Amino acid sequence: MRSLVRLSAEGEGFVPPSSNDFNLPPIFGENAYTTKPIFMVFFSVILISVFFIAASRKAAIVPSKLQFAGESIYAFVRNDLARDVIGHEFMRFVPYLFTLFTFILTNNIFGIVPLLQFPAMSRVSFPYVLAVFTFVIFHYVGIRKQGLGKYLKEIMFMPGVPKPVYILLTPIELATFFLVRPLTLSLRLFANMFAGHLLLLVFIMGGDHLLKGVIGLKLVSPFAFAFGIGLTFFEFMVQCLQAYIFTLLTALYIAGALADEH
Amino acid sequence: MKREENALWSIFGYLLSGLLFWGGVGWGLDSWLGTSYLLLLGLLVGMGASLYLVWLRFGRE
Amino acid sequence: MTGTLNLVGYGLSAIGPAIATGMIFAAYISGVARQPEARSVLQPIAFLGFALAEALALFGLVLAFVL
């Protein structure tokens, strides 16, 4: 594929986007802590805080547009995610779920905002940290609610199975609860953001490269750009969906840890 | 709807961890004993066990 | 461009489970839409079918990495 492009286009060969495009250089200094994703994460925190403080400061019976927007997001997380899933103890977990949802959503949408255009969650460390928070919280809640022994016993021993089969099943249950759940939670978010950003890079950079080619290729490149723009809207959908799924699964895990019976 | 989403992702997690754990055990035994068939055996055992677990948790009334 | 053919094989082998999952849930949705009270009967069947199809996909994924 690369050689084909090189034959048909003038200038240097097309370099397909790869995972190297995600290793951004530090903005100043020589350390690894001043890269663009770090600043974007801090910026997102400031943005979320300013938005919700502004939305809730002048709370009125007849809400302004800003207040309505803030309250819609809050009501969505509280009613549709926390209350429907967790049940009567849901108010304790609304702050965490709300923070998680807005943080992931804002950082994902940064992936398609012009000038920023990099989803911080496509660096795998950020989803790992969020998954570790969720992991600690849902195990802590389960242990506090049921006691350590009973909680572990409920995870490890499925009722209604002959005793020797536990040798097969107990490791699988333990691996699911302590390894696969946080891992899939973080990797799902990471992989979606990574693949989506890579897809946009392929179309935009490919269209740019075609524009530099001979006249026949110049005619093709608008189609690549149009596809890139269409996929940007598709990406917006995926980004909202991934923030929703991460929060929903966190709520479901907390609900599973709180429930007495499986 | 949300319960179904939960069930689907837990099924996925069970199958993945069954394959990973028992496949890992088979792989470890293979490199310890110098054989080559225990990895496949471990993967099959893991898949069977996780399918059984899925049946226990979601398949019966 | 370098890579391994295993991943191409995995991509091909994931087509089957993908179609199977789609068909299972299409049938489940139309069954529940026609007869909403049959949901509790259909749900375990749909989940088991999904588990069987998904097991093949995951088997392909693991074999793509270990072979």
TrEMBL record, chain A:
<feature type="transmembrane region" description="Helical">
    <location>
        <begin position="189"/>
        <end position="207"/>
    </location>
</feature>
<comment type="similarity">
    <text>Belongs to the ATPase A chain family.</text>
</comment>
<dbReference type="InterPro" id="IPR023011">
    <property type="entry name" value="ATP_synth_F0_asu_AS"/>
</dbReference>
<protein>
    <submittedName>
        <fullName>Unannotated protein</fullName>
    </submittedName>
</protein>
<dbReference type="GO" id="GO:0045259">
    <property type="term" value="C:proton-transporting ATP synthase complex"/>
</dbReference>
<dbReference type="GO" id="GO:0046933">
    <property type="term" value="F:proton-transporting ATP synthase activity, rotational mechanism"/>
</dbReference>
<keyword id="KW-0375">Hydrogen ion transport</keyword>
<keyword id="KW-0066">ATP synthesis</keyword>
<keyword id="KW-0813">Transport</keyword>
<feature type="transmembrane region" description="Helical">
    <location>
        <begin position="93"/>
        <end position="113"/>
    </location>
</feature>
<keyword id="KW-0138">CF(0)</keyword>
<keyword id="KW-1133">Transmembrane helix</keyword>
<dbReference type="InterPro" id="IPR000568">
    <property type="entry name" value="ATP_synth_F0_asu"/>
</dbReference>
<keyword id="KW-0812">Transmembrane</keyword>
<dbReference type="InterPro" id="IPR045083">
    <property type="entry name" value="ATP_synth_F0_asu_bact/mt"/>
</dbReference>
Automatic annotation (TrEMBL), chain B:
<keyword id="KW-0812">Transmembrane</keyword>
<feature type="transmembrane region" description="Helical">
    <location>
        <begin position="37"/>
        <end position="56"/>
    </location>
</feature>
<keyword id="KW-1133">Transmembrane helix</keyword>
<keyword id="KW-0472">Membrane</keyword>
<protein>
    <submittedName>
        <fullName>Unannotated protein</fullName>
    </submittedName>
</protein>
<feature type="transmembrane region" description="Helical">
    <location>
        <begin position="7"/>
        <end position="25"/>
    </location>
</feature>
TrEMBL record, chain C:
<keyword id="KW-0138">CF(0)</keyword>
<keyword id="KW-0406">Ion transport</keyword>
<comment type="function">
    <text>Key component of the F(0) channel; it plays a direct role in translocation across the membrane. A homomeric c-ring of between 10-14 subunits forms the central stalk rotor element with the F(1) delta and epsilon subunits.</text>
</comment>
<dbReference type="GO" id="GO:0005886">
    <property type="term" value="C:plasma membrane"/>
</dbReference>
<dbReference type="InterPro" id="IPR000454">
    <property type="entry name" value="ATP_synth_F0_csu"/>
</dbReference>
<dbReference type="InterPro" id="IPR002379">
    <property type="entry name" value="ATPase_proteolipid_c-like_dom"/>
</dbReference>
<comment type="function">
    <text>F(1)F(0) ATP synthase produces ATP from ADP in the presence of a proton or sodium gradient. F-type ATPases consist of two structural domains, F(1) containing the extramembraneous catalytic core and F(0) containing the membrane proton channel, linked together by a central stalk and a peripheral stalk. During catalysis, ATP synthesis in the catalytic domain of F(1) is coupled via a rotary mechanism of the central stalk subunits to proton translocation.</text>
</comment>
<dbReference type="GO" id="GO:0008289">
    <property type="term" value="F:lipid binding"/>
</dbReference>
<comment type="similarity">
    <text>Belongs to the ATPase C chain family.</text>
</comment>
<dbReference type="InterPro" id="IPR020537">
    <property type="entry name" value="ATP_synth_F0_csu_DDCD_BS"/>
</dbReference>
<feature type="transmembrane region" description="Helical">
    <location>
        <begin position="12"/>
        <end position="33"/>
    </location>
</feature>
<feature type="site" description="Reversibly protonated during proton transport">
    <location>
        <position position="54"/>
    </location>
</feature>
<keyword id="KW-0812">Transmembrane</keyword>
<dbReference type="GO" id="GO:0045259">
    <property type="term" value="C:proton-transporting ATP synthase complex"/>
</dbReference>
<keyword id="KW-1133">Transmembrane helix</keyword>
